[in-house]
Please model this.
Amino acid sequence: MAGYGYYRTTIFTAMFVGYTLYYFNRKTFSFVMPSIMEEVTLEKDDLGMITSSQSLAYAISKFISGVLSDQISARLLFCTGLFLVGVINIVFSWSSTVTAFTALWFFNGLAQGFGWPPCGKILRKWFEPAQFGTWWAVLSTSMNLAGSLGPLIATTMALSYSWRLTLSLSGSIAIGVAFLCLFFIVNEPMDVGLPNIEPGAKKGDRKGSTGHESTLKELLLTPYLWVLNIGYLVVFGAKTCCTDWGQLFLIQEKGQTAIIGSSFMSALEVGGLLGSITAGYLSDRAVARHGLRSHGNPRHQLLLSMMGGMAVSMYLFRVTVTTESAKLWILSLGAMFGFCSYGPIALFGVIANESAPSNLSGTSHAIVALMANVGGFLAGLPFSTIAKKYSWDMAFWIAEVTCAVTTVAFFLLRNIRTKMGPVPKKED
Model:
């Protein structure tokens, strides 16, 4: 009989490939946006409406999926979502109106929400708690892989063939991989006759905990949950501003070419890949040294450093890039921002999961993920509306200042009680 090593390898590989396609098919519109605009007349507010519709749907769906992953098969959720994402991308390639684009991208967002929450649930079932942060971060680099190769692949295909073929092909591949994932992914070790890893987990016990179980009300009344919510909202919103609009900002206001724009996006994602792995590995080492305590979290120091780096790199991107700027400098800024933004994104998810009571860890992650996607929504239509009324420069300045202020506030609150749920009587 196959052991943990075999199943961990096949399950992780299937989720990594599957989520890479999830992310690629989430960003296909942004990747081929310049090519679509050559064929279909789209104003800045039209572009914002399309991207915001997806972000809004994704926020709702990811929250629901996070709660559902505790109740039904995470494997089935993951594969169903990937299949639907593929179908929607194919139908999108047949469309030509703003209304159709907006509606289909809204449904794309709904299907996208079935991706990450099941991954987190399955990771926790198959990997040791001491390795959780590292493997979470490594899996999250699937987004960076898709984001770094995606713009180059999509732009090349769109220029060589058409944007319609690009979306149709990517959707078809997602459908095929969805069926493969259904075959390779297993929910938990006990499903294949192996002892479960999660302490206290029993077959059929979705909560995997014993003794007193915290209530949703107790979780929601924890101040630290809302500190994480606001921090994640701002970080994810600022990241989305750069990934969705950085290319147009470079082309329309900085006089750069489409190739430079797509190269910037790729550099950002490569930096993000390194940032996610670094954040997971170094923060796991900090936890191993200091342990998880009731007040403060060992991951905070690295989290704050990276958030500060986000604000600095956004400032340099907005102020120093001109028509004459060297390509290497532009790509370096992209890599720096990616490194400093994807690290916190990985850490917020890990912290929300590990700080919550075991029976509400999925719900805790679902709540902070919902707030993150509210940030993604604000980076869509509201952000593009500011750019239309004023300029891209003003819009990016607002994102930059918001990020800096949030970093300072998080620093001041870094030592509050981080253990979520009810406060023991001796601490009350």
Q: What stands out?
A: The chain has 16 helices and no strands. The mean pLDDT is 85. Residues 89 and 182 are 20 Å apart (CA to CA).
